[in-house]
C-alpha cells in the first residue's frame, strides 16, 4: 500500500514539473530552486523524474525548448532567429544555433527554409509506414474552441508504437473495475511525434470519467488537463493516418493559420480507438493547443 501511495506521489511530482517546464520554457529554469520548493534534494528530484518519465530533467527542458523553436521557426515568419531563441529560453543566438544543429542536424535557417519537411519525412519513414498512407487532409476545417478543465487518470508509456494497445487494455480494465459508464479516452503526445523518433516519444493513455461516481480503485495517477484555446480537427482512419494528420496540421495548416502552437502537448479524444478496435480504425477529434498571433 505504501509503495502504491509513493508511486502516486512521485507521479504527481513529475507531472507538476512537466507542467512547470511547459509553462515557463522561455525562462531560465533553476532546478535547485524547484527541488527546494518540492522539499527534495536535487539528487532525489532528478531520480524521481527519471523514474517516472524515462528522461532526465535537463534533457526534457532542452527537448521542449527545441520543439517550441522548431514550430516558431515555421509559424513566426517575421521573427528573427535571435528573437525565437529568446522566446525559447536561450540567452544567445550562438548557443541556440549550436544545440539546434545538434538536435536536428541542420541550422535554424535551413530548417525555416524547408528543411523541416525532409527531417520529418525521415523520422516517419525510418520508424513506421506513415509515409505510405495517401490520406488527404486538405479538406479538413479547423474549429477553434476553448476547452474546459478535466481530471484524467493515466498510464504513461515511453515510445509511440503499437504496444500502446497493452496500456489501453489496462486502462479499460480499470474502467470496468470501477464500473465507469461515461468516460472519454484521451491520448496525449508529450513529444511531437513528427520530429521526435517514435521510440523516444512519451505517450500517455488517459481516461476522463464524466460522472461523479465514487471510484472503487484509484490506483492510477491523476492530473488536470490543459484548459485553453485549441484548434480541433475531426478525422477517422487507421494507425499510420494519425501521424500523417499531425504532420499535416503542423506543416500545412499551422503556418497559414494565423495561430501559433504553444508548448502544451497536443492530444486526441477518441470516439473509436484504433488500439482497441477489432478493425484497427479510429474516429477522433485531434486537439492542438494554440494562441492567437
TrEMBL record:
Q: Name one GO molecular function term.
A: DNA-binding transcription factor activity
Q: Which residues form the HTH araC/xylS-type domain?
A: 15-114
User: Which keywords has UniProt assigned to this entry?
Assistant: DNA-binding, Transcription, Transcription regulation
* InterPro entries reported in the protein's UniProt record: AraC_E-bd, GyrI-like, Homeodomain-like_sf, HTH_AraC, HTH_AraC-typ_CS, Reg_factor_effector_dom_sf, SmbC-like, Tscrpt_reg_AraC-type_HTH
One Pfam family assigned to this protein is: GyrI-like
The entry's protein name is Regulatory protein SoxS
Amino acid at each position: 500500500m505504501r509503495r502504491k501511495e509513493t508511486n502516486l506521489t512521485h507521479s504527481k511530482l513529475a507531472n507538476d514539473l512537466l507542467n512547470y517546464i511547459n509553462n515557463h520554457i522561455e525562462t531560465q529554469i533553476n532546478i535547485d530552486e524547484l527541488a527546494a520548493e518540492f522539499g527534495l534534494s536535487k539528487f532525489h528530484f532528478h531520480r524521481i523524474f527519471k523514474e517516472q518519465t524515462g528522461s532526465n530533467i535537463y534533457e526534457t527542458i532542452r527537448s521542449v525548448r527545441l520543439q517550441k523553436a522548431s514550430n516558431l521557426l515555421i509559424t513566426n515568419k517575421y521573427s528573427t532567429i535571435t528573437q525565437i531563441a529568446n522566446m525559447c529560453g536561450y540567452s544567445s543566438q550562438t548557443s541556440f544555433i549550436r544545440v539546434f544543429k545538434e538536435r536536428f542536424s541542420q541550422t535554424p535557417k535551413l530548417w525555416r527554409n524547408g528543411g523541416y519537411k525532409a527531417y520529418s519525412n525521415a523520422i516517419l519513414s525510418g520508424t513506421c509506414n506513415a509515409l505510405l498512407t495517401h490520406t488527404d487532409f486538405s479538406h479538413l476545417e479547423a474549429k477553434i474552441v476553448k476547452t474546459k478543465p478535466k481530471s484524467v487518470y493515466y498510464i504513461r508509456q515511453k515510445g509511440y508504437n503499437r504496444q500502446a494497445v497493452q496500456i489501453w487494455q489496462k486502462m479499460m480494465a480499470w474502467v470496468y473495475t470501477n464500473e465507469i459508464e461515461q468516460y472519454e479516452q484521451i491520448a496525449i503526445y508529450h513529444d511531437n511525434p513528427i520530429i521526435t523518433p517514435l521510440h523516444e516519444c512519451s505517450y500517455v493513455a488517459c481516461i476522463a470519467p464524466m460522472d461523479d461516481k465514487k471510484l472503487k480503485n484509484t490506483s492510477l495517477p491523476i492530473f488536470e488537463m490543459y484548459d485553453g484555446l485549441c484548434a480541433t480537427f475531426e478525422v477517422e482512419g487507421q494507425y499510420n493516418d494519425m501521424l500523417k494528420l499531425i504532420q499535416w496540421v503542423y506543416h500545412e495548416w499551422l503556418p497559414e493559420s494565423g495561430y501559433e502552437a504553444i508548448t502544451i502537448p497536443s492530444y486526441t479524444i477518441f470516439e473509436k480507438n484504433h488500439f482497441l478496435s477489432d478493425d484497427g480504425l479510429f474516429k477522433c477529434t485531434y486537439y492542438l493547443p494554440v494562441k492567437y498571433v
